[in-house]
Amino acid sequence: MPTVTDRTFQQAVVQVLTPIFENQFSPYSYGFRPNRCAHQAIEQARKFIEEGPTLKLIRRNLQAGIMENGVVTVNREGTPQGGPLSPLLSKIMLNELVKELESRGHRFVRYADDCNIYVKSQKAGERVKAGAGVTQFIEKKLKLKVNEEKSAVGKPIARIFLGVSFYRKKGRTNKSIRAKEVEETI
Fold first, then answer.
1. Under a CB-based contact definition with an 8 Å cutoff, are residues 158 and 107 in contact?
2. What does R_g of the chain's alpha carbons equal in angstroms?
3. DSSP labels for 51-74?
4. Most Cβ neighbours (<10 Å): which of 5, 10, 129, 130?
5. To the nearest 5 percent, what fractions of the chain are helix, strand and coil?
């Protein structure tokens, strides 16, 4: 049995650590968390069960097919592009990639389906991309195809992210908008 001193110390540690870690926990984790209880967990379970028809509608939408020149072809993979649902489904799918990158301790920036992973060397970049790296995770775990033409390892000046490349000058990192991107916006 903890003594009064032990309990006081442990409670002080809980009060310091809880705010640091609380926002990292899943919103669907209810046990032993501030402002969460078993009743909320049960209600969330009920909502998920009730959403069954919504999930069926999403599946039908994904399998609806594509019409080109008046002919419907079966859609075997991917999501219909251009609709309001597409960005959300992309975020849901790529959130698994984000979790994987975080678990591996990588520094990265993702915007929609563009993702830059920052490592210290060309060799480290090749290792992260190939082998049991990110490409394999995307293709095997997420069942997505990696566009090899757009995927590369290189120095920031040689890579373009959202129309911008980066370079170092006098110890500072600067950004540069490529002429091609300027022409496309004019």
1. no
2. 23
3. THHHHHHHHHHHTS-EEETTEEE-
4. 129
5. 45, 15, 35
Q: What is residue 98's predicted lDDT score, i.e. its pLDDT?
A: 83
Task: Calculate the alpha carbon distances from 142 to 125, 138, 149 in Å.
Answer: 21, 5, 19
Rounded Cα–Cα distance for residues 45 and 161 (Å): 40
Q: Is the pTM of this model over 0.70?
A: no
Amino acid identity for residue 170 in this structure: K
Could you tell me which residues are beta bridge partners of residue 67? 72
Question: pLDDT (tens digit, 9 = 90+) per residue, 133-176?
Answer: 888 888 888 888 877 777 777 777 777 777 878 787 888 888 78
Classified as helix, coil or strand, 175 is strand
Quote the pLDDT of residue 132: 63
Token pair of 60 as six digits: 């039908």
Between the alpha carbon of residue 122 and those of residues 43, 50, 96, 136, the distances in Å are: 50, 50, 25, 18
